[in-house]
From TrEMBL:
Domain HTH gntR-type: 13-80
Family annotation (PROSITE patterns): HTH_GNTR (PS50949)
Protein's UniProt name: GntR family transcriptional regulator
InterPro entries: GntR_C, TF_FadR/GntR_C, Tscrpt_reg_HTH_GntR, WH-like_DNA-bd_sf, WH_DNA-bd_sf
Pfam families according to UniProt: FCD, GntR
Record keywords: DNA-binding, Transcription, Transcription regulation
Amino acid sequence: MPKAPASTKLRPVTVAEAAAEEVRRKIMSGEYPEGFQLKQDALAADMGVSRIPIREALVQLEGEGLVRIVPHKGAVVSELSISEIAELFELRGLLEPRLLRMSVPRLTQADFAELDSIIAEYRRELEAQHLARWGELNTRLHDLLLSKAEQPRTMAIVDSLLQQTDRYTRLQLSLSAESIKQAEDEHQEMVRLCKAGDVRGASALLKRHIDHACEELKAFILSRRRLSA
């Protein structure tokens, strides 16, 4: 007798999450261009909801880097700078692989256990669509991979770069299911290569990982600007 298919439990979507998804869709499509003011009253009337879930949605989108909350003006669609993205990710692509090559030989079993734990938590948050945590977990994973390089000044620069690219990282991951899957696969493969002691392979993959995020973001911004032109 064939087994009944396993049931799939869907997480209930709140009004705020549904509102965030709709505003996110319009930002991604270019319907809401960069600098566009997102008025809570107008959004609430358009979606037929109160201002409370709209306010929650805008805070969520601010955490994703799509929206900025400006004093005395409210929420506006973030302006994304291609030149800033290029500079920040290029610096990361230069410094992080260098630190990884120095760190890998000193990573311990305890470090790898923590890395596995971060990847497992990252997967859970991706499945739950908790975008606000993606950047945090991404930073934790990169930090730990590089932590044994014993280069405190370079590490301080990289930490600053990770903070500055956090909004871009979350945006890049939210672009498509393929982006999410590729990032997850690359993280897992990077940790596997490090465990195997393949320093060159891990460093090369880290460079490709950073370069891919940069190119995907630049392509998205150019596409959105063409749509809103």
